[in-house]
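Annotated sample (chain length 615).
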Amino acid sequence: MRSEQKRVLILLGAVVLAIGVMGTRLYRLTVVEAAVWTSRAIAQNYIELPSFGPRGAIYDRDGRPLATSEPVYAALLYDQDPDHVAAILPELSKLLAEGDPVLAEGISEYVTERVRLHQKWGRQAEDLVIRSGLSHETVAEFIERQHEFPGVTIVTQSVRRYPNGKVAGNVIGYVQPISEEQLESEQFKGYHPDSVVGKDGIELAYEAVLQGRTGKRVKAVDPAGRPLGLVEEVDPEPGYDLTLTLDLDLQRAAEQALAGNVEWIKAQNDPEAQPIRASLIALDVKTGAVLAMAQVPSYDPNLFIKAMTVGLSAQEYNESVNIPGSPLINWSIQGFAPGSTYKMGVGLAGVSTGVIGPYETVHCNTTYFRDPTRKNWYPVDQGHLALDMALAQSCNPYFYEIGHRLGIDGLAEYLTQFGFGQRTGIDLPFEDPGLLPTQASYGDRWQPGHVYSVAIGQGDVLVTPLQLAVYASTIANRGVRYEPYLVEEIRSSTGEVVRRHEPVVAGTVEAPEEAWRQVFEGMRKGGAHPLGTAYWVFQDFPIPVAVKTGSAETGKAYADAITVAFAPIDDPQIAVAVFVEGGAHGSWVAPSARAVFAAYFGIEDKGPARINKAD
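Output written by the structure step:
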């Protein structure tokens, strides 16, 4: 797990542990992004305080909000004389706790301690946010009783909101107070120590434009640090807004389909299946735009806003973060074995390099004739097959033979054209490059038989679900590989377009027309031929689909399940990759791709009547 995510989990875990000991909920983890702080004395009698403007909003491709900055009420203490604070704090804490006596005690203890520290450090001029996220009722009561609480005021602050909850949570990311690690990094050079910043996803990748420019207030203070008055004020500038390529409706459909698919797999009670985590990516074939990026499990970014304002209960933590599958990690950009979905690339490599003819056949028996320990997934002799039917039926021996003839380094040299073994360039942080194995990468472990595992997408091969979606798109484009991207447009707070993304061709895959024709035909037959591994999933779908299923055995007690597909096959528009760790059979996850195609093309669809058990 990434160090930043470990820090968040440890921090939240410590909070929950403290809650359990206290027998109550923590009222605050830290203040929200508009909290003021003292950076340093700029002279003996001046002190500078930052002011934060609203963070830029994030929208889907149709302008529907995915992340916004909304005003909330907060109680601010600006007179920190200890005797004065002691006099008003009992009643003030009761009011701000909104009827919770334990919370009131926590507020009182927090404020008392902070005032003591500010006096010790000579920071009485630092405004202290007592509690954020106050209700309208609490604010109204405070105004009625304001005469009881001199030195305290109600201010509005900007706080992050994610109106769709978990939807696209792993893509959008979340915000939290800046960490020491971030402060020391080049990316956050010049940030204030109390800044609230992106921690993952788009929030982190586009932190610099979302954050805006911090303002400041300069106060005069006496030698003891007590405030004398405001000397200078510079207003903050709001951050820029982002428009993503995501389609909110398609994103919802993808998430629902994937979650439903995982539950269906669990219900089969198959000893080979143990679904742990899953990912689904849909790309625009002609541009590389990410239309949907779903995963199971996911998280609600609002969780982290709650942690910064009113706090988390132990139950909320255990139900949202401390669960199997590690929801904080974006699994769409982490590497897994691709299984038989790798076979199109291997087939193209064989035909393009001339080690096998486009219509040459290989005997697809239950075992491979050169090495009887190498099995076919299907327990019956499939006969002599050329590339098209070898793909449709997912014949292992055919691809073992290409691996034998071409060698592991020959495979790697060709397949690097698909972008395997390198980051796609997606505008997200923490992308795994995967692994394209060579003889050298195996080192002392190298055995000649390793090429057979690699040739069917196993062994040391690691490919991210996003790379598989790019791979499917590249095949759909007959070799043109686009760089995937999420941000379509950046606009200033006044609505001016600052940047608009243009599609980027990241590379091309060279192959003869006969090879492309055979691969297209094999993927068509995968969903349309009665012997195709996805036939029962797509045989009645109204739009012709190109599909390849796969399963990967990686030494675990269960196999992973993968499907890649694009549609329509005669004019590809959308490509989909589905991955379920522990999904057992590739055909079992193909219904998720079907559901996304139905949503994209506006088809009323009840799904397949039957799902077969196939590679």
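Annotation: Residues 6-11, 13-44 have pLDDT under 50 and may be disordered.
Annotation: The radius of gyration is 29 Å.
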